[in-house]
Amino acid sequence: MSSKSFFVLKTKAIPSRYQLSKNIQTLLEGLDSYHVGSLDVEELGRLVRLSPRRRAAVANTITKCANILKKDPSEVKTCVDIIEMCTEILEIADRQSSTEGFPFMKMPIEIRARTLDLIIDNTFRTPVVVPAGKPSPCRCPRFDRDNVFQTSQMKALPTLLGAALGEEFYRIFFPVHWCGPESANTFKLLPQLLKLESLTLNISKSTLVHLNERASLMRTHFPLAYRNIRMSDILGLDELLLVRGLQDVHVFNVQPKSNSHGVEMDRVCLWDLLTSQLTQPREDLTNTLSL
Predict the structure, then answer these.
(1) Source organism's superkingdom (predicted)?
(2) What whole-number distance in Å separates Cα of residue 261 and Cα of residue 204?
(3) 208: how many CB neighbours lie within 10 A of its CB?
(4) What are phi and psi of 199, to 5 degrees?
(5) What's CA 5's distance to the chain center, in Å?
(6) If we measure between CA atoms, which residue out of 27, 146, 150, 29 comes closest to residue 89?
(7) What is residue 29's predicted lDDT score, i.e. its pLDDT?
(8) What is the rounded end-to-end Cα distance, in angstroms, of the chain?
(9) Domain assignments of the chain as residue spans, ordered by start
(10) Cβ atoms < 10 Å from Cβ of 167
(11) Which pLDDT belongs to residue 184?
(12) CB-based contacts of 196: which residues, under 8 Å, 6+ apart?
């Protein structure tokens, strides 16, 4: 067996004689495991990179061996072996990783959605998450602190996923969908938001893709008449017209620099319609239920 081995050093009681720290002993033992093939080179490198104390222990051990050589030159063989082992550990730690990341974005969207769902359930363990607003100057005691409490993992998760998975994360995190084929079901929930004061709609080309139930039926039997989709036939408009009690309503185009006068006219007409209906006073729910 080679003399450059932590096992050989232990048989000579070198760790206790040289007073080697626990961190350097862990690294030297990991180097032995790397040479016999039981520890991967990436794992050994992470042992050093992820712990500043272990990297400092390597430098301190080299300095300690140099001081021992000055005092006792007869220890040159052992000190040189330890210094070479420490140098090899640093070389492995500074080696560029050749392992590529897992191609998560190439997975089917269903697998990505299921994976993100598991990550969210494991991080957000509360059934309800209330966004924490700006601190209020009011000194009154608050009894809902547990509802707005968020751990550091909960705050960091949306940013750790990056821009590529941001939209997929929020689509899974929020069960309510404001666009697509489920928008009408979501708009039905708006009248229940009694504190809702402002509403902003963004119109895009995909807005005209999903039609309401009547328009979808008529388009099947009258394809020529519905060759040009009207804004009045979009999905969710009927549900939006039931909302009351708002103060501000805004309608924007996702592509504001459109040269089409028809697109701008649809935006203005939709804004005028929603403003006239949604800003009407909200009916008393108690009176409605009594009727």
Answers:
(1) Eukaryota
(2) 15
(3) 16
(4) -140, 130
(5) 44
(6) 27
(7) 92
(8) 93
(9) 6-94, 103-128+151-279
(10) 9
(11) 85
(12) 190, 243, 245, 246
- Region of 162 please: left (phi>0), alpha (psi -120 to 50) or beta: left
- 127-147 per-position pLDDT tens digit: 666 555 555 555 655 544 444
pTM beyond 0.70: no
Report the half-sphere exposure of 43 (CA within 13 A, side-chain side): 12
Closest listed residue to residue 234, CA positions, set 267, 257, 260, 259: 267
Q: If you write DSSP's letter for every residue of 110-155 in order, what string do you get?
A: HHHHHHHHHHHHHH--SS--PPP-PPPS--S--S-HHHH---HHHH
User: CA 199, CA 193: separation in Å to the nearest integer?
Assistant: 12
d(CA 13, CA 25): 12
Rounded Cα–Cα distance for residues 246 and 63 (Å): 73
Q: What is the pLDDT of residue 164?
A: 77
Strand locations in the chain (E) = 198-203, 248-253
Q: Contact, 44 vs 30, CB < 8 A? A: yes
252 beta partners: 202
What is the total residue count of the chain?
A: 291
Contact 148, 132 (CB under 8 A): yes
Q: At what angle do helices 76-93 and 22-36 cross, to 10 degrees?
A: 80
